[in-house]
Design goal:
This protein is of the alpha+beta class. It has 17 helices and ten strands. It starts with 9 loop residues before the first helix and ends in a 5-residue tail after the last strand. The structure holds protoporphyrin IX containing FE. Protoporphyrin IX containing FE binds next to helix 9, helix 13 and helix 17.
Length: about 425
């Protein structure tokens, strides 16, 4: 008997792992009743997750349902903006996806990503200075608000080549679009969508006229008018717009959760924090273990079966089913991660790690494997050591077991990580 799943339940959002462990025991995929009265297939084992993500019978193209904005003149400006985002590459299958992926992979070449190192260091230092001022003034800050949220947004600003003067707008729109509507004034979320849409449209035109050295300019330079019959060609206007939205949302929410969860884990595991301070070679292992233990993308985007699929162990998923590969659950599968619920960065230490531990699946698997994994790792390995070394005696001011988490099955991370520090000199 499977209990109905309510992704909005605060207790589930905080600790979904016992529920997932129960599902994992039932088979490679389980049809779960959702609190809204519908059903979905959840995949929670490591092997089954990787198999689903590499199998073209699980399509990324969302079914055309009623209520979806069409992206035409009958929609409001905010609906049109949301419809643009819906065209992104995560919502496509081969051959469309293959073409988009080929063009974007070139823009995200390792040398381009690595060239961001100095800017990420500067941005980190700037935010730490602001945080110090706030700590002096207020005595405590929320690490999410002061650091984990703004840093990834500023870094995406670099990726998109958003001029410094426009960064405050980007930050404010992103904050509103990512916040629950009831926390804001009515209309603020729609206004933010419309603002982002207009801004990105103008940005694309500007980059086409005068490309910069940013990653996004590399995408616009390829943007030639495309003959739909051709499989080659560059990104068209709509695809570029969708790409800008995707980079913002895929890049900031995930990295924000990684930074917030890693800080929280280290503040609650002082031995691991001290070990990383003593031996900086441990930081990449801290990042990998956080990605596994507190996977920032709890589930992938939804997949839809194009035909009936026999997934093994006598489980058959019918055609047309909605399927979620739960990365957070796959990364706690005891068949691949000894003592899976423990936070033990040592298992990923280069050369000395636990060889029974599998590579985690936090960046997905198969054709849609995260395009920004190198950037996310770079950002986290720069930001975390600096953040945690900057303030003496940094400590939580709330019970970690009671912190609120973001609801839903897609992203996972604490909403707030309130901290204080020893008196600053
Ligand atoms: C796709 C995780 C950061 C850009 C994905 C997927 C995962 C993932 C699991 C595959 C989703 C699926 O199969 O449905 C993460 C995590 C991050 C992170 C955990 C940080 C900790 C970033 C950053 C960027 C980025 C910084 C870019 C700036 C993308 C893009 C895709 C993607 C463009 C779509 C790839 C495709 O459809 O081929 N990410 N991501 N991600 N990610 Fe990330």
């Amino acid at each position: 008997m499977i209990a109905p799943l309510d992704p909005a339940d605060p207790a589930f959002a905080r600790d979904p792992y016992p529920y997932y462990a129960h599902l994992r025991g039932q088979g490679p995929a389980v049809r779960v009743p959702l609190a809204n009265g519908t059903h979905a297939w959840l995949v929670t084992g490591y092997e089954a997750t990787r198999a689903v993500l590499a199998d073209p019978r699980f399509s990324n193209v969302p079914p055309q349902g009623a209520g979806r904005p069409k992206g035409d003149s009958r929609d409001s400006p905010a609906q049109r903006a949301r419809a643009c985002l819906a065209r992104h590459m995560l919502n496509t299958d081969a051959p469309d996806h293959t073409r988009l992926r080929r063009l974007t992979t070139a823009a995200f070449a390792p040398r381009r990503v690595d060239a961001l190192r100095a800017r990420i260091e500067e941005l980190t230092a700037g935010l730490l200075r602001e945080m110090e001022l706030r700590l002096r003034r207020d005595g405590s800050v929320d690490l999410v608000d002061a650091f984990a949220f703004p840093l990834p947004v500023l870094v995406i600003g670099e990726v998109l080549g958003v001029p410094e003067a426009d960064r405050a707008d980007l930050r404010a729109w992103t904050y509103r679009v990512g916040s629950p509507a009831d926390a804001l004034e009515p209309g603020a979320v729609d206004e933010a969508w419309t603002g982002l849409h207009a801004y990105f449209t103008e940005l694309i035109a500007r980059k086409r006229r005068a490309p910069g050295s940013d990653l996004f300019s590399a995408l616009t330079q390829d943007a030639l008018p495309r003959d739909p019959a051709e499989s080659g060609g560059g990104l068209d206007d709509g695809e570029l717009l969708a790409m800008a939205f995707l980079l913002l949302f895929a890049g900031y929410e995930t990295t924000m959760n990684l930074l917030a969860s890693a800080s929280l884990l280290l503040l609650t595991h002082p031995g691991e924090l001290a070990a990383a301070h003593r031996d900086p070679a441990r930081w990449p292992a801290v990042v990998e273990e956080t990605l596994r233990h507190a996977s920032p993308l709890e589930g992938t985007t939804w997949r839809h079966t194009t035909e009936e699929v026999d997934i093994g162990d006598g489980v058959v998923i019918p055609a047309g089913a909605s399927v979620l590969a739960v990365l957070a659950a796959a990364n706690r599968d005891p068949r691949h991660f000894p003592d899976p619920d423990a936070f033990r960065p040592g298992r990923y230490l280069a050369g000395a790690g636990d060889t029974r531990t599998a590579p985690h699946a936090a960046f997905g698997h198969g054709p849609h494997f995260c395009l920004g994994s190198r950037l996310a790792r770079l950002e986290a390995t720069i930001a975390l050591p600096r953040l945690l070394a900057a303030f003496p005696g940094l400590r939580l001011t709330a019970d970690p077991a009671q912190l609120p988490y973001r609801p839903g099955l897609l992203v996972r991370g604490p909403r707030r990580v309130p901290v204080t520090t020893a008196p600053l000199p």
